Amino acid sequence: MLSFLREDEWVRREFAIVPLREDKWPRNAYYGNVTLVSRDLNVVKAEIVHFSLTAMQRTGLLVYLRMSATGKMEDTRIICIANTHLESLESGERMRPMQLEALAEMLKQEYIEGGVVAGDMNSIAKADRPLVRRFGLKDAWRRGDSDPEGFTWGYQSLEEDQKYPAARLDKILYLPKRRYKVDEPQRIGVGLKVHVQEGEDHWVSDHYGLLATLHVVE
Predict the structure, then answer these.
(1) What are the structural domains of the chain?
(2) Is the pTM of this model over 0.85?
(3) In what helix (H) or strand (E) does residue 46 lie, and over which residues does it extend?
(4) Rg for the chain (alpha carbons), in Å?
């Protein structure tokens, strides 16, 4: 995947790719996180959190941005954007709480103004539901997990996964009561396919994407 991003002219022109190379992902990892950061933004640093408890080599990718509501240097604050893919399946139920807690703690570092954790939370169990509040986070989606308008997975699944019901697996969470606000996300990439060869189109992803805006306020 990273090779396609690196070779795309529009991506290279408009974004910094984090990480730039696959060797930044855990060894033997089946999945990896990547964040595209607009070149208009001021990046302070980026780091990868390797979860200590994971059977699937899952991580959190953190990008720290210097942002301001006024454009003045004295008004800037550092906001962390964490991109993650928590442990999958029922077997990951005991691991997801510790993984999400680790990322929530990173947002509470003293020198930053909080931030966002976004990605595939794999929220498939009842035990996953209270985790957001337990770790001091807030869900940008206001309508709960049972509203089909919030479902992000199950409509573009591979054939072997169609036995599972549609669900809201992907979320945008944030640390509340800070000097920013996060809009309620909307789904993107619904029905989006890529042409592979004549007579063959594939879903871009088995997940829908989420689009939300973070507004820095004074």
Answers:
(1) 2-216 (3.60.10.10)
(2) yes
(3) strand 42-50
(4) 18
